[in-house]
Amino acid sequence: MHYSAFRIFKEGLTGNKGWKPVWREPEPKAEYDIVIIGGGGHGLSTAYYLAKEHGLTNIAVLEKGWIGSGNVGRNTTIIRSNYMLPGNQPFYELSMKLWEGLEQDFNYNAMVSQRSILNLFHSDPQRDAFVRRANAMLMSGADAELASAEDLRKELPFLDFDNARFPIKGGLFQRRGGTVRHDAVAWGYARGADSRGVDILQNCEVTGFDIEGGTVCGVQTSRGPIRAKKIAMCVAGSSGRVAAMAGMRLPIESHVLQAFVTEGLKPTLPGVITFGAGHFYVSQSDKGGLVFGGDIDGYNSYAQRGNLPVVEDVCEGGMAIMPMIGRARLLRSWGGLMDMSMDGSPFIDATHIEGLYFNGGWCYGGFKATPASGFCYAHLLAMGTPHPVATQMRLDRFKTGSLIDEKGVGNQPNLH
Question: Which backbone phi and psi does 67 adopt, to 5 degrees?
Fold first, then answer.
C-alpha cells in the first residue's frame, strides 16, 4: 500500500476500512540465502538495503520478541554526524544523508526533524577541541557552526550562563542534526523490506548455530532449524551472548543506558542540547515531554531497567545547565542494552567463521547510525567487501593496533 495525503483523505471518508497490515506474518522457510539475527533498526535496515540496492530477497530477519522491542525503541531519538576521526565521520555523514531522504525513500512518516544539535563547551581547552572537531566535520562534507556565549544567550536564554562551576563559553552547532521517531524507523524499514519479499519472523529466538568444517550453514531457533548460506548477527546488547553460541568471544561489554521523559510542556527547546562538562543530553518530543539521558550504568547487565542512582546523576547534569528542568515532573524511564566496544567505535565485519558476519559495538551511536549501518552491512553481505566508509570498522583492529578511539571511553563507565 502506498501512503499519501490522498490515501488518508480517502480512508477518512470510507471509515478507514481499506488500511492493510504494515508487514506479513510468514512461516519460516527451510532455507534462505541470508539470515539476519536481530529485528531492530540495524537488522531491518540491512534487509531493506539488501533488497533495494542489491536485489536480494530470499532473506529472513529473526527477532526473538516483536519488532521494535529492543534498543531501536529504547533511545533518545537523536541523529547527528558530529564525529571527528576519519574512521567514523564519513560513515555518520553518510547516515545523515540517508536520514534526510529516508521518508521519501521508504514511503513512511518517520518524523525526521532536523531541528539542530548543540554541544556546549565550558573551558578554553574544550573550545579548542570543538574547533578541531568542527574542522574535521567540514572537511568530510558535514555542516558545523561555532557559537559564542553571546550568540547562545540570544538563542537559548534559559541556559544557566551564570554557573560559576560550569560557565558556558560557547557551543558547536550541527544544524542538520535533530531527532527521528524511533518506533517509526523500525516500522518503516520493516514495511519496506517486507514489501520487497523479505520474511520478518517475530518471536523467533536463535538458540544455536550449525557450523560444519569452519563454515556456518544455519541456525537453530525456537521455531525450528533454518539453513542459510550467510548468517548476519545484528543484536546490539545481546551480541556477546549470541556470539558465544558460535564459540566466539567479542571485545564488547553490555551495559544499561537509561533514558527519561518528563510531563508534556509548552514548546521550550528548539533542538538537542548536550552538556559539555558532564554527560547529559536533552530534546523535546512532539508531545512536549523533555527526553533526556546521560551515563551508562557502572556495571555489566542484560536487564532493560533502570535504577535511582543514575536518575540522580543524570538529573544533576540537567540542573547544572538548565535549572528550570527541576520543575518538570518525571513520567517514565527505560533502559536499553548498550554493546560497548573497547574503543567506543563499532564493528561491521566478517568473522573468522566462513559465512558468519557481525555488526555491533555501537555504544551510544546505534540509533543515529541505523541507515548507514544497514547500507554498509548490506554491501558487505552482498559484495563480500567492506563499504568504503566502513573499512576501519574491523573486528581485528585491537590485534593490529588500528583503534578508532573517538572519545577514549569505550566500555569504561568510570571515564564517562
Answer: -60, 125
For residues 27 and 165, the answer to whether their CB atoms sit within 8 Å is no
- Closest to 24 in 3D by CA, of 1, 50, 52, 41: 1
Terminus-to-terminus CA distance in the chain, angstroms?
A: 46
pLDDT given at position 105: 96
> 3-state DSSP call for residue 57?
coil
**Alpha carbon distance 287, 269 (integer Å):** 13
Q: How confident is the model over 374-413, as pLDDT tens digits?
A: 999 999 999 999 999 999 999 999 999 999 988 766 777 6
Contact predicate 256/337, CB 8 Å: yes
> The pTM is what?
0.95
pLDDT tens figures, 168-190: 999 999 999 999 999 999 999 99
Rounded Cα distance, 123 and 131, in Å = 12
Between 306 and 215, residue with greater pLDDT: 215
**100-136 burial code (b ≥16 CB/10 A, e <16):** eebbeebebebbbbbebbbbbbbeeebbeebeebbeb
31 beta partners? 227
Span 83-104, pLDDT tens digits = 999 999 999 999 999 999 999 9
Looking from the CA of 363 toward its CB, the CA atoms found within 13 Å total 24
Whether the CA torsion 365, 89, 177, 121 is positive or negative: it is positive
Which of helix, strand or coil describes residue 44?
helix
